[in-house]
Structures are given as C-alpha cells and as structure tokens.
Task: structure prediction
Amino acid sequence: MMNVCAACGVYRADKIVDAAASIAVCPACGHREAFRLQPLFVVGGASAAGKSTVCRQIATRCANAVVLETDILWRAEFDSPATQYREYFEMWLRVAKNVGQAGRPAVLIGGGFAVPDNLERCIERRYFSTIHYAAIVCDDAVLEARLRARPAWRDSLGTIEQQLAFNRWLVARRGEPPLHRIDTTDADERTTANEVLEWIEASLSG
Result:
C-alpha cells in the first residue's frame, strides 16, 4: 500500500523518507505522504531455541504490538544465500511497515531476524524509527538435545552443527545495534514469554 504513490500511482520502494517529519516523498512526482514512524521489534535465534513457542505464548498477550511469525510467508524462491535472503527480509519489513500504519508496531519472530546486517541494509529499513533486536539462545547441549528430539519430517539432524554455530554467534555478538539475549536453557515457556513481553514494553516506554 505505502509504496504506491497516491498521486501518480507509481510503485516505488525507494521513496525519499523524511523521518523527522514522518513524510515519504514520491521520487517520480514529488507527492508528500505522511506515515506513522514506528519502531520495529525482531526476535531471532537458532532452530529449537524456542522462537515458535514464544510466538504462540505472546501473540494474544502483547497488547501494544502485533506479533507475527515470519515462517508463515517463507517460500522456496526466497532461499537465496547469495543475496543474504534480501528479498525475504525486504518483504517482511514492508509487511511490518504497513502493519504499523494501524497504530501498533510489529514484532517479527524468525531465525535470521536477530542478525542486524540482514535488516539494516534493506531499503524498507528507513520507515522505522529504530529496530530493537533480541535473540533467544540456550546452552549448546540443550539446543542439540532439542534438535535431536524433533520429529523426522523437520529434518533437523543435518543442520545441528550449523544451528549450534549460529547460537554461539548470537551469544558472543557485541556491538551496535545492541542485541538483547533471552536464555531459555533453564526457563519454562511462560517465563521466557514474560521476559520477551517485558523487553517489548520496556523498549516502548523508554
């Protein structure tokens, strides 16, 4: 919706964004359109860290944001490691941008969303005041046990080393933008969900 100019009808993702005024300017005709500049919350992590469980727990309890699990729109054509899955992340930022126009920011939950480079380079990034990053992590032994316990159709056994390496990277990462870590090693589902909700509310009120 927002990428189509209301004046000339041209589709442009690369509108000129004046974040201070919350205005997007059409590069084709100069039409200025106001939009809601919202923050964005993303929660990532390795497979079996607990992302889907958290999503189910908080989706109906998060009063001030809209919670979306990103796997629901995954398709084979997005599997493009050569571009760092750019189209997939651009699509989800576009969805979150449009969700935010209803008055509540989005919370996107999915594996690679905890990697800031995946989002900060996207053209749709300019429509958000800030992106708050969180990663769900756990001890290696716990993650490996969870992956091995998964049903065969999920084909998790072949990716154990890859997921362990990703989990370790998330635990070790430092720098900007900051990454909030939520450790599920010894936490039950509700405790983890509460921590995610508290992180969202604290970021909104801060």
